[in-house]
Amino acid sequence: MNDNQKKKLLEKITDAGVALAFEPAGTGIGSQWAAKLKPHVNVVENDESCPTACVTTDAVKFDATFLQSLTPSETLFLVAHETSHVALGHLVQTVELGIAQYDSTNPDVLSIVGIPGKEHEAKLLGIAQDVFINEALLGAKLGKLPDKGCTVNTLRELGRESYSGEWTSEAMYFWLLARVPPPPPQQSQSQSQSQSQSQSQQAPATGGCSPKGLPQGIGKVEVEQMRAAIRESALSGGRLPGQGTALADMFRAPRARVDWRSILRDAFEVADLDATDRSERSFARAARRPPGGIIMPGLIGTQARIAVIVDVSGSVGPKWCARAASYIESLQEDYPSVSCWLASHTDECTWNGWLKPGQDRATLMKALERTGGTDATEAYALCAKAGESVGEFDVLIHFTDCYLPSWPAHKAKRFVVGVMARSDTPEKIPGNPRIVHVTP
After folding, report:
1. Which is nearest to 178 in space by CA: 401, 437, 422?
2. Which of 72, 165, 229, 252 has its CA 20 to 30 A from that of 351?
3. Cβ(341)–Cβ(383) under 8 Å?
4. Burial bucket for residue 225 (CB in 10 Å: 0-12, 13-18, 19+)
C-alpha cells in the first residue's frame, strides 16, 4: 500500500463519516465520530490484531484489504459500528464481566489487557456486542451491514435456538455462554485450525470489532458524553418517522452495578445486628455467688442465619457458586455468630447444605458440575425446609439472571435478588425484594 492508496482509503473513511452525519438517524453518531474519533484514524496492513477494524489506544484502525472491499454504504455502517463500541463503553463492560482487566502500566489511558484463560468468554462477548450494535444500526437504516457481520441470526446459529432474552449485549453474552461450549484444551495445531475453520463457517468473523482500548485523550467522561449526545440526537425531532428508537434505547445510561461480595457482606452484617437485637438479657440474682464472684448480667444470644441461592445454569456457571461458597466461609470467620445455608440450582437443585469453615471444596465442585435450564422451585422448597428447624432466615439472597418460569414463595425477613444479566428491573417477584444489579 503506497501513500496514494492510503490517502484514498482515508478519504473513503472521511466521506463515510460526513455522510453519516447527514443521515437523520445518524446525526449524533456522526457528530461524535467527527469530534472524538476521526483525528485518530489509521489504515493498516497485515495487522493480526485488527483483521477488519478496531479501536485501540493508538488509533481507530481499519484494515486496508477489508476497507477496499466495502461499498460507501458499508463503510458508513462500519464507522457507525466502531463509534458505537466506544460510546457504549464496551471496553469497560469486558472488565465488569471479569473477562479483562485495566492495564495498570498506563493508568492515564483507558486500556485493558486480556485475562489468560478467558479467550472463549471474550469471543462470545465480542459477538454479543456486535449483534447488539448491528441490529440497532440496521433498524435505523444506517448504511449496509458488511458481509459476515453478526446479527441475531448469529445467535441462533451458535445457540441452536432463537434468542428470546432481554435485548442487551450482556444478556446475549450470558445466553451464548450457556449454549456454546469452549474448545477442548490442549489441541494439536491441526485440530485447532480445523476447529477455527468450523467456527468461521458457523458464525461471522468479529475480527477485532470489539475495542481493545481507546485513543489517548479519551477517558470515561468523554465516553459518557458520547453516549448522552448520541441518545439525545436519536430522541430529537431530527430523525425520520419510525427510525432512531432502537438507537435511543441502545444508548440508555447503563445501570450501576456493585460487586456481589458487598451484597453478601451486607447480609452478614444485617443478620448479625438483627440477632443481637433479638438477644435477651439475663439478670442473675445477687444471692447466687459462686466462688469466682458475682454473676454479672449477660446476654442469651440468638444465632443469626442467612440463606444464599445461586443460579448456576449455563448463563452463570458452577464456578461462580464455588467462589461464593469460598467467600461465605471467610465471612463466617469474621461473623462467627452467623450461619449460612447455601443452594445452587439449574432447573433443579444441584447442591444444598449448611456451609462450614473448611468445607470439602472438591465435593462441592463435583456437585456443581451439572448444568441445565433455570428453575428455582426445588431450591426454594429446600430452603424453606432448612428454615423449619431453625426458624425464619434473617436474609435470603438469590443471585440469578432472572430467566425463571416463575418465582417461588420464600420465608425470610429480608429478600435480596442479585441480578446478574438483565439490565431492566425484574417484574412480578413476590415478597418486595431489594433488587441489586451485580457483577458476577
Report:
1. 401
2. 165
3. yes
4. middle
304 vs 392: CA distance, rounded Å: 10
What grid cell was written down for 32?
461524535
Domain spans, the chain: 3-250, 258-284+296-439
- Amino acid 347 reads D
Beta bridge partners of 342: 308, 353
Contact between 214 and 223 (Cβ < 8 Å): yes
Q: Which three cell numbers stand for residue 342?
A: 447455601
Strands 60-63 and 349-354: unpaired
Strand partners, 399: 310, 418
3-state DSSP assignment of residue 307: strand
Q: Which three cell numbers stand for residue 167?
A: 435485548
DSSP string, 232-284: HHHHSTTSPTT-SHHHHHHTSPPPP-EEHHHHHHHHHHHHHHHHHHH-EEE--
Mark the ranges of the chain whose per-residue pLDDT is less than 50. Answer: 188-190, 192-208, 237-243, 284-287, 299-301
Sign of CA dihedral 307, 313, 315, 320: positive
How far apart, in Å, are the Cα atoms of 22 and each of 35, 233, 277?
15, 12, 65
**CATH (one of 3.30.420, 2.60.40, 3.40.50, 2.30.29) for 258-284+296-439:** 3.40.50
Contact 266, 414 (CB under 8 A): no
Instruction: Give the integer Cα–Cα distance in Å for 161 and 384.
Output: 35
Separation CA 26–CA 124 (nearest Å): 27
How far are the Cα atoms of 379, 391, 413 from residue 431, in angstroms, in the given order?
17, 18, 10
Rounded-to-integer distance, Cα 94 and Cα 73, Å: 29
Q: Which three cell numbers, joined as nine digits, stand for 427?
A: 417484574
Strand segments (E) across 91-202: 100-102, 112-114
* Whole-number pLDDT of residue 387: 82
Cα separation, 431 vs 440, in Å, equals 24
- Asked if 397 and 263 touch (Cβ cutoff 8 Å), the reply is yes
Q: What cell was used for 170?
A: 450482556
Q: Are 328 and 265 in contact (CB under 8 A)?
A: no
Query: What pLDDT digit, counting tens, does each position of 35-93 carry?
Result: 999 999 999 998 887 888 988 888 899 999 999 999 999 999 999 999 999 999 888 88
Contact of 80 with 137, CB cutoff 8 Å? yes
